[in-house]
Amino acid sequence: MKTFIQAATAIFLILTMTIKIHASEKGNPLLQPFATLHETAPFHLIKNEHFLPAFEAAIAEARSEIQQIIDQKSVPDFENTIVALDVAGDRLGRIRSILFNLNSAETSDEIQKIVQQAASMLTEFANDISLNQELFEKIKTVHNQKNNLDLSPEQLTLLEKTYQRFVRNGANLSDAEKEKYREITKELSQLSLKFGENVLAQTNAFELQVTDRNELGGLPDYLLESAAQTAKSKNKEGWIFTLQYPSYVPFMKYADNRGLREKMFRAFTTKGNHGNEYDNNEIIRRIVELKLEKARLLGYHSHAEYQLAERMAETPERVGKFLQELHEASRPFAEKEFAEVQDFAEKLGSESKIQRWDWSYYSEKLKAERYGFNEEEVKPYFEVTHVIEGIFGLAKQLYGLSFRENKDIPVYHEDVKPYEVFDEEGNFLSVIYMDFHPREGKRAGAWMTDYLGQSAVHGKSIRPHVSIVMNFTKPTDSIPSLLTFDEFTTFVHEFGHALHGMLSQCVYPSLSGTSVYWDFVELPSQIHENWCYEKEWLDQFAVHYKTGEKIPAKLIEKIVKAQNFQAGYLSERQLSFGMLDMAFYSLQEKPGDIAEFEAKAIAPTELFAPVPGSLQSTSFSHIFAGGYDAGYYSYKWAEVLDADAFSVFQQKGIFNREVAGSFRKNILEKGGSEHPMKLYKAFRKQEPTVDALLKRSGLKE
Description:
By secondary structure, the protein is mostly helical. The chain is built from 28 helices and 7 strands. It has helices at about 1-25, 50-70, 80-85, 90-105, 110-130, 135-145, 155-170, 175-205, 220-235, 245-255, 260-270, 280-295, 305-310, 315-345, 355-370, 375-380, 385-400, 485-500, 525-530, 535-540, 555-560, 565-585, 595-600, 620-625, 635-650, 655-670, 675-685, 690-695, and strands spanning about 210, 240, 400-405, 415-420, 430-435, 445-450, 465-470. The termini are far apart.
């Protein structure tokens, strides 16, 4: 009788959920089949009020799908348990990607409130799944038979990752420990969102208004015109400069007014550290404390140890040794470069020691004197539409891809450009969205994401919808969007991530595209940056936006020669971020004063005297809101991989289709279907060494 009642209750719940879903689908575009080209997100139909009802309905649907796995009477096997679990919640995943991507690229106060609620719902749902003992027992049953199932490498990976995901998310905990785990993860999801919101709010809150043109000596015309347009848009006089990268970075490079540079610097480096409602100090302490508590709950000594158990680096000790090796190689060069800039500043009349707000200014002038050019000389040759053509051309030469802009694909903002991507035979491969310019609703930086991942479960091919989001200089009334060389390489970097997503040929959604070990994910992005210094490629698209003149060969030579300008300093700066990250997440207790902790963590890499109030930590979104916790070292780790991998192209030709085909087949198409070192060795035929990176950077003979 008890079994009958349980079965009847389960059927009733499923029917009730189904009725609720159908009722809520009416008029909600998120809960209906997307009747758009390639079933892309119907941004033109989605309203904010659609999200929470959609989440409620989709979570109910996903719970029903999971319950069917639990309730099935068949013996658990790979298909009815592992694969079924991997595809469960498909609708929920799509809705989540739309909302959370909008929160990064086109947010508002209303969306942020919705995200907070949705995050709580998602965390509760995720915990209900990972802590479900009945479900875990079925997974464990399959996992115990793995050596007898005749599975492919990708299937074995999926089985192992599924099992480990449950273990790492608390499946083996006691009931009391599971409840504690729930509390920790729920609070962490809210804190991470709040951290990012605070950084965005502080970024948008600051503006430097200047009404006297005499105070703006040294600034290029395009920046002045852009600042004047910003002021006009706010109904204010003069020029307004902001903390958005396209405004802040050139201001710090070119503004002769040292006092204004200092003002901008202090505003930029004190975000989240003002003791107000947007202060992130206590949030950092709590995040670090909770992640340590979670790690210990799961049997690890630190959060870093927990994270690195599923990374190529494997242990905090190995990461520490890696960072130290690069630090020892970089430090002598960094000290020499620092002294050179100090001497150069004195030569130009500076009467004091250079401060942090002087570095970019004098470095840019030194580079111009040493190599005979500056960023402003380069920018006219990197007009954004020409750069797009060049990047698409590179993808065609290497991988046979073609791109077609299609304005029938809905977008979430008028700045966004949607493209269809096809292979050499004309088969549809992907949709890619490109979002170039800063807005108040967009967080800083640049990133790649997706709205739909690739999969081919049971022979049904799902092609991906990816997006690259950047913050490039906006066009003005008289000047188009011209990219600095740094912005150009950033574009290529994010496009490399996009290729990883677009070219994926995996079966299972949780393994496809960029779903790889965190210290492997930067290889596809960083290797493509190498082409930015190759004359053979630049000659194909880099033309002056006014005259159409091809970029001069001498200018390319200067760019290449300047490639390693201040390589030691830049390496030390990047290492400081990695050291700070590892210091936080290797802790055995809650951190005390954040400023003191940061100063101690980055002391080995420091060259400047400290600036009171200035912190990296309180706006370090990568590690407190962006998934790079105990993983920031991966940028340098991937530099080792990309330098080593690109050496094959250098040996056989930078457009060699055989080499590109191997990189595509063994890296870009495979996602996380096998261990990354196995994939890398399939391409490279050997493990990487740090030598190629040190030689490329000029840090080793």
